[in-house]
Design a protein that fits this description.
By secondary structure, the protein is α/β, with parallel strands linked by helices. It folds into 2 domains: about 120 residues, Immunoglobulins (Immunoglobulin-like, Sandwich); about 240 residues, Alpha/Beta hydrolase fold, catalytic domain (Rossmann fold, 3-Layer(aba) Sandwich), CATH 3.40.50. It contains 8 helices and 19 strands. An 8-stranded mixed sheet has the order 10-11-13-12-16-17-18-19, sandwiched between helices. The longest helix has 19 residues. It starts with a helix and ends with a helix. One of its GO terms (molecular function) is starch binding. Pfam families: Esterase (PF00756). InterPro entries: AB_hydrolase_fold, CBM20, Esterase-like, Ig-like_fold, Mycobacterial_A85_antigen. This is Alpha-dextran endo-1,6-alpha-glucosidase.
Length: about 375
């Protein structure tokens, strides 16, 4: 009966607008009486304690939250405010992400939390070639600071060689399990292995995301439901502040043909935008599972109207068919436009995997192939 009342109130107060309501119908017995429960999801950069995604406890003791209508697939988990208090499976182990699809209609979904995960301490897995460049690197364009990681090739200290540079978003997920929220890319292990095999190497610069500011900084345009709009300033930081510092401080090959951007999800969106805005600075783009949906119309218009000097830019697009229904089609829609703007087909590589999911584990497995194609 309580559930029926909840559904009735949902439709009544939503004015029949399209949105999703998530109900928690049961929680583990060891849940504190005053527990605060949050949704960490692909919609809020997997922030485990986002106040905008906190569930409300109703008079019947159930938790619920309304999610504004979006597009495609949303993955999510419940937490009590941190990844150390995330929900688990029936045995207290980590569980797979929950999933729902926006369908343009009101939805009310029941969820049962079986346990709170018995987390194991995360390991420090960064290789000796990874350093913290700065805990608080100043971003004048955004009037804030950010932690910057840097990977230097194995032989950097013993040669006078200069190297290509790749700038990567979501730096906390690149090198170290202990700082990642759902697994790391293992970029350092991949580069160490390529060095051992005698392959070309590169300097990797990882910029940690701004947590609650991630969606705002990773899109140049505002999405009415999820934010954005600071991406132009962030791109200017990458091109005219951070790159300038790295080229002055380290032995780099500074030309665009030796400089790349790689990012996934919203990081893929901002990497693509930055590469299109500054083709004279970044000539190699690794675009993994890009969130083009976040500002699709604005992005297409931008490429159509503003892209210049991109004939030498190389694009490596990666997407999984187990991601949102629009993921592959969004990339497929972008490729002909790039060709129309003068990018040779040989400079565009697309890889769509049947098994691909929106996850660090997928991107980690695909990183070496992307690097070798972009920097042969």
């Amino acid at each position: 009966m309580n559930k029926l009342i909840s559904i009735f109130l949902f439709f009544l107060y939503s004015g029949l607008q399209s949105q999703v309501i998530l109900d928690i119908t049961s929680v583990p017995k060891d849940t504190p009486e005053n527990a605060r429960i949050f949704v960490a999801s692909s919609l809020n950069s997997w922030n485990p304690n986002d106040p905008k995604f906190e569930l409300k406890k109703n008079e019947w003791g159930n938790y619920s939250i309304e999610i504004p209508e979006g597009s495609g697939k949303a993955e999510y988990k419940f937490t009590r405010g941190s990844w150390e208090t995330a929900e688990g499976d029936e045995n207290g182990n980590g569980r797979e992400n929950r999933v729902f699809h926006f369908n343009g209609k009101p939805q009310s979904l029941d969820n049962q939390i079986l346990s709170w995960e018995k987390t194991q301490p995360k390991r420090n897995t960064a290789s000796a070639n990874v350093k913290i460049l700065s805990e608080n690197f100043w971003i004048p364009q955004l009037k804030t600071s950010r932690k910057i990681w840097i990977y230097l090739p194995e032989n950097y200290a013993t040669t006078k060689e200069s190297y290509p540079v790749i700038y990567m978003e979501d730096g906390q997920n690149l090198f170290n399990e202990s700082t990642s929220f759902s697994g790391e890319w293992k970029v350092d292990e991949a580069m160490d292995s390529l060095f051992t095999m005698g392959k070309r190497n590169a300097i990797i610069v990882g910029i940690e995301n701004g947590g609650p500011e991630r969606l705002n900084e990773y899109s140049a345009w505002n999405n009415a439901k999820y934010g954005g709009g600071k991406g132009e300033l962030y791109a200017d930081f990458l091109a005219n502040t951070l790159k300038l510092f790295i080229d002055k401080t380290y032995r780099t090959l500074p030309k665009a043909k030796n400089t790349g951007l790689i990012g996934s999800s919203m990081g893929g969106l901002i990497s693509f935008y930055t590469g299109m805005k500054y083709p004279d600075k970044f000539g190699k783009l690794g675009i993994f599972s890009p969130s083009f949906w976040f500002a699709r119309n604005e992005l297409m218009w931008f490429v159509e109207q503003n892209s210049t000097k991109i004939k030498k830019t190389k694009f490596y697009f990666l997407a999984g068919k187990k991601e949102s229904p629009e993921m592959v089609s969004d990339v497929e829609e972008m490729v002909p436009l790039l060709i129309k703007k003068g990018v040779p087909e040989k400079n565009i590589h697309t890889k769509f995997d049947d098994y691909g999911t929106h996850s660090e584990s997928y991107w980690s497995k695909e990183f070496p192939a992307a690097f070798l194609w972009l920097f042969p």
